[in-house]
Amino acid sequence: MDFDFEQLAPEDRYRLLCSFVAPRPIALVSTRGATGTPNAAPMSFFNVFSQDPPIVILGMQAKPDGTEKETLRNIRRDGEFVISLCDMPLAQAMVDCGIGFPDAVDEVALTGLTHAPSLKVAPSRVAEAPAAMECRLSQIIDYPRRAIVLGEVIQMHVRNECLDDQGRYVRPEAYQPVARLHADNYVVCDRQFVLKASEELKTGS
Questions:
Q1: pLDDT 10s digits, 34-65
Q2: Pairwise CA distance, residues 103 & 36, whole Å
Q3: What are the beta bridge partners of residue 6?
Q4: Is the dihedral of CA 70, 150, 65, 113 positive or negative?
Q5: Are 83 and 132 in contact (CB under 8 A)?
Q6: pTM across the whole model
Q7: Are 135 and 83 in contact, with CB atoms under 8 Å apart?
Q8: How far, rounded to the nearest angstrom, does the alpha carbon of residue 150 sit from its chain's CA centroid?
Q9: Rounded Cα distance, 69 and 83, in Å
Q10: Which phi and psi angles does 200 have, rounded to 5°?
Q11: DSSP 11-74
């Protein structure tokens, strides 16, 4: 089958893109409201795109009525946010943080999670997360009903048992992130394998 994306309806483009560009890591994004109320929202249009500078990217869609979601409004105003990464113990709370609560609701507390203070930004991180990244806004690229947020990671927190004794490599048995497939379907990264380039082909190149 072939699909002309210049003619295809947005909801059909979304269905195809999200179904085939998968699994996608999930960012539980923490910000602070205008009155200081903590806010947290999960986003699967998320990834890391550079280490020098250390840049992460978030894709944020508008509400059905076309207005901006609270997370984006907070990032525009304050220029900072925290990304907490999610594993299975956080999975249900992460999904529940995505319910469209009023701005005055603290999603972290409501879902039974715990705030932990950040070192360089005002928004807190999720204490139960295996890893979290404090970010400073680098750039926002605006499209109709969509914004692409580029953030520079300025501090990272990692649970001790997720790394080897030297603090260099992830222990796959300890860090098994949850990723999104499509709709309400998710996968956990609990089966890793090593795959290297063919020595025969490398020798002949």
A1: 999 999 999 999 999 999 999 999 999 998 89
A2: 11
A3: none
A4: negative
A5: yes
A6: 0.94
A7: yes
A8: 12
A9: 17
A10: -65, -45
A11: HHHHHHHHHHS--EE-EEEEEE-TTS-EEEEEESSEEEEEETTEEEEEEEEPPTTSPPPHHHHH
